[in-house]
Amino acid sequence: MAYVLGYWYADGSIYPSARGSYLSATSIDREIIYKIKDWLKSEHTIREEKPAGLNRKTRFILRIGNKSLYNALRKLGIYPSKSLTVKFPNIPSHFLSHFVRGYFDGDGCIFLEMRKGITRDRIIKRLSAIFTSGSQNFLVELCKLLGRSLKLKQSKIYRGHRSYQLRYFTSDSIELFKFMYGNCSRGAYLTRKFDYFGRYFKLRPQKLDVSIKKILDKHGHVAK
């Protein structure tokens, strides 16, 4: 459930209404919303919302009316209209990797920066793993925790137009991969993002070590 809490901190919300207390999670990735529904043992219908416009993606929305879950999330630090002011919660160390993976699947991304090589072939310049939040305080605390736990090099938060970003580059991103996926059950993540890491290691096999190979093999990737 630490994963689900992390995801809710990223792409979830809670709100009271005259008819009850509700929680909602939204994603353009159908897979993760259905997984969360299953993990919560919810029987609620997932709604599909198709925005107007050629390049707009369908959004999948899970809306649950449940006062007990609502109150539980309130106690765990989530509140209505949290996006700009939310603080990093107190997560036990043995749950931290699951929480971070859940947050990454909600408001994180992985990026392969490419450049032309001498022979004009495109080669990888670097790997980036990025966490985004409207709350600078949240990312500052996340940065401190990851720095202490994994001895990561990054310590700068970047300010964008509407949000803040915590960016990790190649060596730190590889350590994050080991941290987020090294102790999780198969499928307890958004496949698309895990596969992106797998693509990087396929293109840069020299970065593989024993622990990375073990993770890739466990989750069905062939480590070469």
From TrEMBL:
InterPro entries: Homing_endonucl, INTEIN, Intein_endonuc_central, LAGLIDADG_dom. GO terms for biological process: intein-mediated protein splicing. Residues 4-146 form the DOD-type homing endonuclease domain. Pfam families: LAGLIDADG_3. One of its GO terms (molecular function) is endonuclease activity. This is Intein-containing protein. The lineage of its organism: Bacteria, Candidatus Yanofskyibacteriota.
